[in-house]
Design brief:
It is a single chain. By secondary structure, the protein is mainly beta. It has 2 domains: 59 residues, no CATH class; 59 residues, no CATH class. The protein contains 3 helices and 12 strands. The strands form 3 sheets. It has an 8-stranded antiparallel β-sheet with strand order 3-4-5-6-12-10-9-8, with no helix packed on it. A two-stranded antiparallel ribbon has the order 1-2. The longest helix has 7 residues. The relative contact order is 0.19.
């Protein structure tokens, strides 16, 4: 059952929607209980990805055959990661609650957990090359879970 208050679990789930499952496992409940926007993305290599935006709160990204490979959430999602981290926190707050922060591909990886990331907002997603480039008062409004291990 989809639950917008469920914990954010690294490389596993957001809102009780589980990575690597097929979107078909959730589609009936999504359309019955939520507002859904669907966007198709054609990649340069000819592959297609599908994004399901649910209640303007979470984004479920799937491969063309439905396998969920990424789930994101924004400030409307109240669930927590590790019981203390959430969207809408300042980078300074996040630094105080974590041991290590690293930038990869416009995202901040926390404590070398490559299943969870904060998305840096523009222009920091393009110009921040080290943690020192991120202002402590910068609010991070988006979290994504996926398998980011290829970034290591």
């Amino acid at each position: 059952m989809i639950d917008f208050t469920a914990d954010i679990k690294s490389k596993h789930s957001v809102a009780n929607i589980i990575l690597e499952e097929n979107i078909s496992n959730y589609i009936d409940e999504l359309y019955r209980k939520h507002s859904i926007k669907v966007k198709n993305y054609n990649l340069p290599d000819g592959e297609t990805r599908v994004g399901y935006i649910v209640d303007d709160t979470i984004t479920i990204a799937t491969l063309s055959y439905g396998t969920i490979f990424s789930i994101g959430c924004n400030v409307h999602y109240p669930g927590l990661y590790r019981g203390v981290l959430s969207t809408g926190m300042s980078f300074g707050q996040i630094k105080k609650l974590t041991k290590r922060q690293r930038i990869f591909n416009g995202s901040v990886i926390i404590d070398d957990d490559f299943g969870f990331s904060y998305v840096l907002p523009a222009p920091y997603d393009e110009i921040a090359y080290s943690i020192e480039d991120i202002p402590l008062d910068l609010i991070l409004n988006e979290i994504y879970i996926s398998d980011f291990s290829s970034w290591q």
